[in-house]
Amino acid sequence: MAAEIVERQRADAAQRELLIRRLAKAESERRKLLDAYYAGAIDVVTLKGEQARVAADIDAAKDRLGDLDAYLGEWQEILKLAATFATRCADAHARATDRTRKLFNAAVFERVDVKDGRLCHEQYRPPFDDIFSVPEFDTKLEWC
User: How far apart are CA 49 and CA 57, in angstroms?
Assistant: First the structure.
């Protein structure tokens, strides 16, 4: 899980760097537009239109930066909850009603193959696929 978070942070850092450059470029364009207007090179209508375009670019980049931060925080929280669930799911599954067991199974598994009454293959749903691929969870699931 830590490796997944590090990978997401790395990918987000590259995107964040691109967005920061985009913001700097937009701020530079904004200053150049004002300079051009003060120098009489463009009229008020052109200035307003270009300012609106640049402002939209800045807003979009700031929104995306905010999304990156929120997304990473949400992903970390999801992984934390999934890991907690994964470490306690056998006990919870054993105590659950049949209906709740079905819900557990639907949340965790994409597919379960049984042959001759024995589990022969399981395919997990995200984020459990990443969690259960860790060697600490390399056990045969008897609770499904």
Answer: 13
